[in-house]
Write a structure and sequence with these properties.
homodimer; 478 residues; alpha+beta; eleven-stranded mixed β-sheet; five-stranded mixed β-sheet; 23 strands; 35% helix
Chain lengths: 478, 478
């Protein structure tokens, strides 16, 4: 029996959201499971999405003066241990190299879980004077964290990311950098990925190991759970001191620079799936779609149809769109289902009657809207339709976020809302970790962040009744 | 005492070529040594060169239908061992992960030294039909090989590379791919890196572990030693059989695809240093130079000079050149030395008298040639000058290669030539490994390749006197 490839049905997202998610990852050919447990393979289509994210994000980083570097994949244990909080945070998840060739190593080496330590070690070599500051570095690579339970994109023993690492002359400058990069992520999510975000600061309990402050963007998925989509950390001079990074300041004294780091990962692809996907499969925002427009001939055996469709595809490519044509002998139904599964934002159909009428049909992936388009309008209309996809995706996601964000004034109300509605619950908070733990215990929600956009919901912490210090957004998180 | 950064002298290349090389790597700020022995850090300037190489080469790969993917960094020992020759070739150099978090792993995992095994394992999952062939994959990543002696770019325990992996329906198609990709590398070296190459096939002794045939491009460095700059391998269906990669063929039977792999690495940067560098530092071919044109104001305290120079820089940028201006308060001499060290292909100087005369001065990095340029000619002349740098670099390297390639008819002659002249020695060869070993033993040269461009130097093998089968190029290699 010949092995044949089929477009298969995926699980209904209302029935089993987790299975629906996994189905999309596999059937849209984004990933494959590797033979090493908990690791993933990014297949061409999945990697092409990541390449688009990389290209667009990297350009943003470079606009603000960041430079890329490459650091070693292995970190000596002694180096990793110099900063206590960091190593305590990561030690349980580190994979260790203990053999090089046939020799046992004298010191075991960590497969990098994050590279603050390497950057500090390097800066300790190369930094001399305040004139060389700031150093604004970034690297694109993969990191390994030995997670217990894994899911493609969301939590994997290896994932691909960028990690920005910077050092600055003053604390203020480093703080500005931390916030600037968080806003860079937020703008990227909103403008490129069509995902609205909540920007805010993590509580001490939720912040990055070793950081003085962690800022985050939190997105809401279609199942109303939260996904932390990128973070930005301010370290003060803690790592500089631990790793002996110094420079000669303007006053000719030896000083410690102030440091930041910030990261975003292939998890963003998981966020896109769960923000925009539907029961027909993936739905991709146009800017990151490997194929933005798929041209499908209708009744392609009829004379002239293939040639006519090819002209459309060529014109769209010439206009700068990532367009592709499918001339395979698969049925029209198969093709439509296939490109819906893969989330191609716009489908252009052309059949014999369309040719006669000098038109084609455009079908938007996100809402199925069909438009008959005069051929002289092809390029202009394709641009408008892709914009409509982008706007439509953002609008739907924004409504999802707004309609599932609730304010609560008591712990009981928060529990009730979480149980009955799900989503993000906003409450005031006294700042005490005990209350944070109690919310987790009783309502099953962790603090997602203290949003920059604060509201005065009430005057007291709904958990302990003490005076409130800040508003927190709570949620069930991936 | 304040720490200050200085442009320092580098070792004379005629005195100590190895030290000269290391000096450039460090003083042009390409690399830093990492705290893990034998590992390197690619600093912003070094990584920017690699990014340019990646961007240009990746575009070439994509033009011929290749797609990027990402494979796991770890390979289970059992998977690595399925193909005997490959694992025998790499086993002594593999770094092993034996601990994940605090748990000892049941099976140790190799930090990938190369990924044939992972690609095969993946293809065994996803390949079904001949319709899906060829699969033309590539990945950009780093690999780890536990080398004993290391040098930046040339031999390092971790290096960055691309590894192409493809499978095909027929042997002929796979063979064509192997040669196509070798020619892609050769053209890249010649047209982008300005390095002439010798294209050919490796002897069985020198081929890749597990390959049926390995093709190579060999470049000659300024010290007349050989550098293998990229390789392309044909595997037949050996790995497919070992890893159970099958597809349903046109005749509905289960078949094994034919496979290739091909790779090039950050070693290319080492090749560029040793092909074009001089006693003032690095010399970069324009297409990979992070900064193509440096604009330096002369007597910048004089009124209008800074503004005038800035206009030049802006115009050059607007014309698409990677141009930069140095307005720091360092001396003109310091600046010139600094950008020579960093290999910037073209320097544009402008002082008060130039402004009066409506001109600037262009100085080529490779030959120091100065040209006075009317300002209205700025962009056009910059283009011509960069082309002249490219041509000049290639021409010098070509002369080096030609003038240090010798034909020998006897082993004695080969030994003599190697001893007195160095470089590439061409001889005939019977095809016997014993003769290859004898050449190594007596003349200290390994076979670099059997060039595609064959010559009939004599009729017999100069080592054993038996009938000659092919011409071989011998050399001392990095």
């Amino acid at each position: 029996m010949a092995k044949e490839k089929k477009v298969q049905q995926i699980t209904d997202m209302e029935e089993d959201f987790a299975q629906w998610y996994t189905d999309i990852c596999l059937k849209a050919e984004l990933v494959d499971y590797a033979s090493v447990k908990g690791f993933m393979i990014l297949r061409p289509y999945g990697y092409a999405i990541w390449e688009n994210i990389q290209r667009l994000m990297d350009a943003k980083f470079k606009e603000t003066g960041h430079e890329n570097v490459a650091m070693p994949v292995l970190i000596p244990e002694s180096l990793l241990k110099k900063e206590g909080e960091l190593v305590n945070g990561f030690a349980p998840e580190v994979a260790w190299v203990t053999m090089g060739g046939s020799e046992k190593l004298e010191e075991r080496l960590a497969l990098r879980p994050t590279s603050e330590t390497m950057f500090c070690d390097h800066w300790a070599h190369v930094l001399h004077s305040y004139r060389e500051l700031p150093m604004l570095y970034n690297q694109w690579c993969s990191v390994v964290r030995w997670e217990k339970t894994t899911r493609p994109f969301l939590r994997s023993r290896e994932f691909w990311w960028q990690e920005g690492h910077t050092i600055h002359e003053t604390a203020e400058e480093a703080q500005r950098e931390t916030e600037q990069q968080l806003n860079c992520y937020a703008d990227f999510c909103e403008n490129v990925l069509a995902m609205p975000v909540v920007r805010g600061r993590k509580t001490d309990k939720e912040k990055f190991a070793g950081a003085e402050a962690t800022y985050t963007i939190e997105c809401m998925m279609k199942d109303h759970k939260a996904l932390q989509s990128a973070t930005s950390h301010y370290f003060g001079d803690k790592f500089s001191r631990a790793y002996g990074v110094t420079f000669t300041g303007r006053d000719n004294t030896l000083q410690y620079p102030f440091q930041t780091s910030w990261g975003s990962t292939t998890r963003l692809i998981g966020a896109v799936i769960m923000t925009h996907g539907d029961n027909s499969g993936l739905v991709l925002p146009p800017q990151i779609a490997p194929v933005q427009i798929i041209v499908v001939p209708v009744a392609q055996h009829k004379p002239g149809v293939v040639e006519g469709a090819q002209v459309l595809c060529d014109r769209l490519k010439a206009a700068g769109f990532r367009a592709k044509i499918d001339l395979s002998d698969n049925s029209l139904g198969w093709k439509c289902a296939q490109y819906e599964m893969k989330g191609v934002p716009l489908r252009v159909e052309m059949g014999p009657r369309d040719m006669e009428n000098g038109q084609c049909v455009m079908v938007r992936r996100n809402d199925g809207e069909k438009t008959f388009v005069r051929l002289e309008e092809l390029e202009a209309e394709a641009g408008r339709q892709l914009e409509a996809v982008q706007t439509g995706l953002y609008e739907t996601a924004r409504r999802n976020l707004e309609e599932h964000t609730y304010a609560a004034r008591t712990l009981e109300e928060a529990k009730q809302l979480q149980k009955e509605k799900g989503g993000f619950i906003k409450t005031m908070w006294c700042g005490d970790e005990a209350c944070e733990l109690k919310m987790k215990e009783e309502a099953g929600m962790s603090s997602r962040c203290m949003p920059f956009a604060q509201e005065q919901i009430s005057d007291v912490c709904p958990i302990c009744g003490k005076p409130a210090k800040t508003m927190v957004v709570w949620g069930v998180a991936y």
